Amino acid sequence: MAEPFQFELVSPEKLLMSEDVEMVVVPGSEGDFAILKGHAPVMSTLKPGVVEIQINDKEQQRIFVRGGFAEAGPDSLTILAEKAIPMEDLDADILAQEIQNAEEDVNDAKSDEVRAKAQEQLDQLEQLQASL
Amino acid sequence: MPSLKDLRNRIASVKATQKITKAMQMVAAAKLRRAQLAAEEARPYAERMDVVMANLATALAGQDGAPPLMVGTGKDDVHLLVACTSERGLCGGFNTSIVRMVRAKARALLADGKQVKILCVGKKGFDQLNREFASLIIDQVDLREVKRIGFSNAQGIGARVLELFDESEFDVCTLFFARFQTVMTQVPTALQLIPAAPSGDDEENAMSGSNAAYEYEPEESEILVDLLPRNVSVQIFRALLENAASEQGARMSAMDSATRNAGEMIDALTMEYNRSRQAQITKELIEIISGAEAL
Q1: Which of A76, A102, B148, B177 is the Cys-Cys partner for B84 at CB 3.0 to 4.6 Å?
Q2: What is the pLDDT of residues A60-119, one digit of tens each?
Q3: A residues 81..100 contacting B (CB < 8 A)
Q4: Hey, which residues does A71 pair with through a beta bridge?
C-alpha cells in the first residue's frame, strides 16, 4: 500500500481532478513513467496517451490526454493537458477526429521539423487507436 | 402641444422598450454568471502555466539561442495589435473603451514611424477601427457563431498569430481586451504577447526558485519551444474569457440604466398625459357653463 500524494489534472477549461492518489502513470514524450510519493522533481512534456491514476487499492481511473506537460514534486503531481477526456467518454469517433486533425497538421506543416513532430503525434494516436 | 392620443402612443412605446431592456439585463445577468464561472475555471491552468514559464525563463536566462517567441526578433519595426471586442452591441462603453485604447496605441506607433497591423477579434471592434485604420487591418476573426468560448477558439487565433510570426510579418504582438474587475468596472488592458513579457513579480518567481533541482525531460530548451506557442493560446483564451465576462457585465449595467431611464420617461410622460387630460376636461366644463350662462 503506497502512501497517497496530491494529484491535479488541469485543462484550460477547468480543473478536472484534484485529489490524493497512490500512483499515476504519465505518458511522457520520452516514455511512460510512473509517479509515486517522494518522486524527484521532474518536468516532462506529454505525448497523446492515457494517464492511469491509481486512487487507492480498489479505484482506478484512466484519462486520455493530448498535449501538455507534467510537473512532479516530492508530494505533488500536476498535469497540464490541452485536452483531457475520461476514458469512459472517449470513443472511436473522438479518436478518429483527433487522428484526422493530426493528419491535417502533418499535411500543413511547413518545415521538416514541424512535420516530424506532427507525424510523431499522429503515430502515437494511431497506436492508441489500435490498442483500444 | 401633443394630443392625448400621441401621448398615449409614446407611453406605450417607451413601455415596450423598457420591457426589452429589462429582459436584456436579465439575460446578461445570467450569462455573466456563466462567463465568470468559465473565467474562474480557466484560472488554475493559466496560473500553473505562468509559474512554469517563469521557471523555465529563469533556468534559461542568459543562454544563447533562446527562441524568438521569448526574446523577440531583435527589432520592433512592425507591431501587431490584436483587438478583442464583442460581437454584439448594446453594452455601454465596452467596445468603445477597448477601441479607444487600440487607436491611441496605433497612433502613437505610427507617429514613431513604426508599421502597424491590426487583427480584429469580434465584429464591433472591426466596425469601429475600420473607419480610421481600414488599410491596417489584416484580418478579422468572427466568433459570432460561438455560444460558449472554448479553448479551441483561442487556439485558432493563436495559430493565426504564430503563423504570421513565423512568416516574420511582425516583431511585437500586443493583445487588447477588457479585464473584468466588477460588474460595473471593466478595465481595458494591453498585454504584450510576443516577445513574452516576464509575468509575475520577483517575489513569486523567487518562491518557485527551488525548482533549480528539476529534472527536465526533454531538455529545457525543447520544453520551452513546445510551451511558448501554447502559452500564446492560453493568454488569448484568458483574454477572451475576461472579455466575455466584461461584455456581459457592461451590458448588464448599460441595460440597467436604460431600464431606469425608461421608467423616468414613463413617469414624466404620464404626468404630462394626466395634465393635458385634466386641462381638456376643465376646458369642456367651462364651455358648458358659459354656454348655460349665456342663455
Answers
A1: B177
A2: 888 888 888 888 888 889 898 888 888 877 777 777 787 888 778 777 777 777 777 777
A3: 82-83
A4: A43, A78
| Cell numbers for B196 | 513574452
Cβ atoms of B122 and B128 closer than 8 Å:
no
> B49 near B158, Cβ under 8 Å?
no
How large is the angle between the packed helices B94-111 and B220-294, nearest 10 degrees? 130
Buried b (16+ CB within 10 A) or exposed e, B67-78: eebbebbeeeeb
Cell of B201: 513579480
* Distance in angstroms (rounded) separating the CA atoms of residues A33 and B83: 42
Report the catalytic residues of B. 91
ipTM above 0.95, yes or no: no
**Global pTM?**
0.83
Residues paired with residue B174 on neighbouring β-strands, in sequence order: B81, B192
Please list every residue in chain A whose beta carbon sits closer than 8 Å to the beta carbon of residue B42: 12-14
As to burial, measured by CB atoms within 10 angstroms (0-12 exposed, 13-18 middle, 19+ buried), residue B20 is middle
Instruction: Show the cell assigned to B7.
Output: 401621448
Q: Are A37 and A45 in contact (CB under 8 A)?
A: no
Q: Is B121 left (phi over 0), alpha (psi -120 to 50) or beta?
A: beta
The amino acid at residue B295 is L
C-alpha to C-alpha distance for B188 and B175, rounded to whole angstroms? 11
- A15 to chain B, any CB pair closer than 8 A? The answer is yes
Within 8 A by CB and 6+ apart from B204, the residues are B51, B54
Give pLDDT tens digits along chain B (295 positions): 788 999 999 999 999 999 999 999 999 999 999 999 988 888 888 888 887 777 777 777 666 666 777 777 778 889 999 999 998 888 988 999 999 999 999 999 999 999 999 999 989 999 999 998 988 998 888 888 777 888 888 888 988 898 888 888 888 899 999 988 888 889 999 988 888 765 544 444 444 444 456 788 788 777 877 788 888 888 899 899 999 999 999 999 999 999 999 999 999 999 999 999 999 999 999 999 999 999 8
- To test the contact with chain A by mutation, choose from B40, B43, B45 the residue with the greatest count of A C-beta atoms within 10 A, namely B45
